[in-house]
Amino acid sequence: MSAPSSEPQAKHRAGFACFVGRPNAGKSTLTNALVGQKVAITSNRPQTTRHTVRGIVHRDDAQLILVDTPGLHKPRTLLGERLNDVVRTTWAEVDVIGFCLPANEKLGPGDRFIAKELAGIKKTPKIAIVTKTDLVDSKTLAEQLIAIDRLAAELGFEWAEIIPVSAVKGEQVGLLADLLVPLLPESPPLYPEGDLTDEPEMVMVAELIREAALEGVRDELPHSIAVVVEEMLPRENRPKDKPLLDIHANVYIERSSQKGIIIGPQGKRLKDVGTKSRKQIEALLGTPVFLDLHVKVAKDWQRDPKQLRKLGF
Ligand SMILES: Nc1nc2c(ncn2[C@@H]2O[C@H](COP(=O)(O)OP(=O)(O)OP(=O)(O)O)[C@@H](O)[C@H]2O)c(=O)[nH]1
């Protein structure tokens, strides 16, 4: 047995962080870079993150649980209002908030809107994260850092830290974790080691299908697509070394006129969506999958509380 050291051991910390920022700021990509595996859903289309997805960073000294929220935006529908409520509730509950601001875009009204909301959440420490630094030169980056510092000063608060990162290049991602950890409360681990997310598998599978279904469709469609996984069952009577998971999922659209866009000529587009998402699902779950996709019309689901509940909102 070793003699007790006079230096007190650093206590284990565990807690929650969430990344906020306007659409496309790089929140999901950063979550993935920190966790080291694809858990959040990224896309170059704004507002694809519907569900609160948690990624978990396990370290010897800490457990950092990342909550990925949808972007705060001007609500136009019932869904929009619910999403904003989810965002605000999340902000008030976490131990630290990371505000993502892309290095390659000047601060705009969207950033100010979020910063103002942040200023109102007094107790939670806020870190400014300048994302996508690989896209700018050092002068532009320096100017952005100054502008971000000023933004907080104007609103009467201070950043706990300001840190530039590139999630794509993996630059400063480790340092970001080092800065987040001391802001977490002392606590034993909250999740078993090895857990990367507690998002139910069915929701993650639905998100992967939604992500594939969104790719390459017209700009007005994203908010009209919802995916519900109805069933995930291991196929019976398969040899032990050749399992197969049957997944039945419905892709919901608002109007039957949108059916053609999703399905494509001779069903080709839907087939591609199926193939693409199946590969991702297999990678996620680590098992071969048979994916059965159906397109259904749920009329005006965004405005109908009953439909929203059914679709998981
Ligand atoms: N070059 C570069 N691109 C990045 C970086 N991080 C994210 N991106 C890109 O920026 C786009 C948006 O990234 P996301 O991570 O989906 O952004 P988000 O903030 O989660 O977006 P929403 O879900 O719409 O709120 C994607 O095309 C990413 O590939 C980065 O560090 N460098």
Q: Mind explaining what this structure looks like?
A:
The protein has helices at 27-35, 78-93, 109-119, 138-154, 173-180, 201-214, 259-263, 268-285, 305-310; strands at 13-20, 53-58, 62-68, 96-102, 126-131, 161-164, 226-234, 245-253, 289-297. It is α/β, with parallel strands linked by helices and 313 residues long. It folds into two domains: 13-183, Rossmann fold (3-Layer(aba) Sandwich); 201-310, 2-Layer Sandwich (GMP Synthetase, Chain A, domain 3). The strands form two sheets. A six-stranded mixed β-sheet has the order 2-3-1-4-5-6, sandwiched between helices. A three-stranded mixed β-sheet has the order 7-8-9. A hairpin with a 3-residue loop joins strand 2 (53-58) and strand 3. It is globular, with a radius of gyration of 21 Å. The chain starts with 12 loop residues before the first strand and ends with a helix. It binds guanosine-5'-triphosphate. Guanosine-5'-triphosphate (GTP) binds at residues 21, 23-29, 42-44, 46-49, 71, 131-132, 134-135, 166-168.
List the helices and strands and how they pair.
Layout (H helix, E strand, L loop, with lengths): L12 E8 L6 H9 L17 E6 L3 E7 L9 H16 L2 E7 L6 H11 L6 E6 L6 H17 L6 E4 L8 H8 L20 H14 L11 E9 L10 E9 L5 H5 L4 H18 L3 E9 L7 H6 L3
Parallel strand pairs: 1-3, 1-4, 4-5, 5-6, 8-9
Antiparallel strand pairs: 2-3, 7-8
Helix pairs in contact: 6-8
The protein binds guanosine-5'-triphosphate.
